[in-house]
Amino acid sequence: MTTEEPRQQDQQSRAWVYSRRGPPGAVLALETTRAAPTLPPPNAGAEEWILVRVAFAGLNVGAVWQMLLLPAWLRAPTPGEAGPGSATGGGGHGNATTTTAAAAAAAAAAASVPSRFRKGDKILAMVPASLALSTGTGALATTVALPARCAVAKPAATSLADGAACLLAGMTARLLVAAAGLPLDQHGGRDGGRGQDPPRRVLVNGASGGVGCLVVQMVRRAVGDAGRVVAVCSGRNAELVRSLGADEVIDYTLYKDAPGLAAHLATRFPSSSSSSSSSSSSSSSSSSGPPLSAVIDTLGFQPLYLASASFLAPSGVYASVGIKPPRFALPDFLVAVARMKLNEWWPTARWLGGVGRPWRAVAMLSPSLQDRRDVVDLLAAAADDDDSRPRLRIVRDSVWPFEEAVAAYEKLARGHARGKILVKVDPLVGDDEC
Ligand SMILES: NC(=O)c1ccc[n+]([C@@H]2O[C@H](COP(=O)([O-])OP(=O)(O)OC[C@H]3O[C@@H](n4cnc5c(N)ncnc54)[C@H](OP(=O)(O)O)[C@@H]3O)[C@@H](O)[C@H]2O)c1
Fold it and tell me: Which residue windows does the record flag with biased composition (Low complexity) (predicted)?
């Protein structure tokens, strides 16, 4: 969808906005006659800005939390609005589209910085929470003005939809893999686990979600053929997760709750430093094996962490996206934040009342340009010399029309997306168009 001239309708923008706190279905409104954003005036800042026509937006759970929790006074009003409001997208949606370059070049010249983009370039961008909250910018709008540091060039062979799906989830996945102490094998081939002795055994919880699908693939490469990737997901997603690189799938629906799953893990991967019951209970079972080297929890199940000494090796790390509150509600969120701080600050030593294993949480408030490039490089790079497929496969749960963004958010909030949920902002763009 490269065009050299802005379309007539680019003078106006359509955007999903909200101005009060609440669930997406209650607070989101579609504005159809909004003036399209313009670039900041000269001297507005010493950096390049771009005007972006959005093709797709990828939805993220963090934006649901922003809509539910953040009072209006904590967010900047969207420019041009009478009252406080913010285009949704808050915590970051990947966008893919073309820049209107005349404007981009003008902004760069005014700021005396080199221009990275020209009119018609196709880009992938992620609006970080720091920008969304301070400026009211979000991705669910037909036209968006952004600092160029939020964007990277789209690889030629990557579809606009896959590009929109990859950035926030991919950056989170990379952080998790690094936090778990695994090598980020960006350029290696099938020998990702070379030199690891003994081979690593890594558990990925929530393996079929937007973040989980990417973590499984990154861990597969990090541990190599000798290592073992154990995925926790429901039976309906077992085949998908195996196709992404999991050696073993544990169906969480077979267990009553997270403590039930933890009890199974203690039997399957007994850790010698935990209670004797866990190792003895499976002594005759061919299904028990050495403890896990690391856990990557893409959902943040606190009971799983609290029991981790029973299935995670003493040297192992529990890497997590945070702690999942039981409901989308402010009190539950505050309790989860307090528990996260305790996980971080309380000593891990058992004799001091600790869990016995370190907890490492990741945060994605304001990722760098390099963070974005690292993910996009994985999309662009061939898996191996004899294989032209990208190293990262994007799993799409569904693609929703722009007008149905609320229904898309409601599906996301139910917690059972299989890969990424996308909104097609520009109806003229094909689902697989590059
Ligand atoms: N810290 C950060 O900076 C950061 C950044 C990005 C995301 N996050 C957080 O990371 C979390 C995951 O994000 P996401 O986009 O991957 O979420 P998501 O796509 O909504 O995850 C949904 C997946 O979780 C699976 N699932 C549901 N219950 C499960 C259970 N009990 N055990 C195992 N799997 C289960 C679902 O499978 P079934 O349908 O089979 O149940 C579904 O495939 C969110 O809480 C998000 O807020 C944090």
Answer: 271-288
Contact predicate 385/375, CB 8 Å: no
Q: How far apart are the first and last CA of the chain?
A: 8
Length, in residues, of the chain: 434
- Residue pLDDT, tens place only, 104-158: 444 544 555 678 998 889 999 998 888 888 888 889 999 999 899 999 999 999 9
Residue 172 tokens, joined: 């989170």
Q: Is the dihedral of CA 264, 268, 274, 280 positive or negative?
A: positive
Q: Identify the sign of the CA torsion 408, 409, 414, 416.
A: positive
C-alpha 391/C-alpha 161 separation (Å) is: 17
Q: How far is the centre of ligand 1, averaged over its atoms, from the C-alpha of 206 (Å)?
A: 6
**Contact criterion met (CB below 8 Å) for 166 and 394:** yes
d(C-alpha 335, C-alpha 327), whole Å: 11
Determine the average pLDDT of the residues in 340-358.
Answer: 91
For residue 168, the Cα-to-chain-centroid distance in whole angstroms is: 4
- C-alpha 199, offset from chain centre: 27
Residues with CB under 6 Å of ligand 1 are: 60-62, 168-169, 172, 205-206, 208-212, 232-234, 236-237, 252, 298-299, 321-322, 324, 362-364, 412, 415-418
Protein residue with least CA distance to atom 26, ligand 1: 206
Pairwise CA distance, residues 34 & 13, whole Å: 5
Instruction: Provide the pLDDT for residue 34.
Output: 77
CA distance 302 to 338: 12
Residue nearest to atom 41 of ligand 1 (CA): 416
Task: Give the residue from 138, 129, 117, 126 showing the smallest Cα distance to 48.
Answer: 117
Least Cα distance to 180 among 262, 271, 295 occurs for 295
Decide if 207 contacts 417 (C-beta within 8 A): no
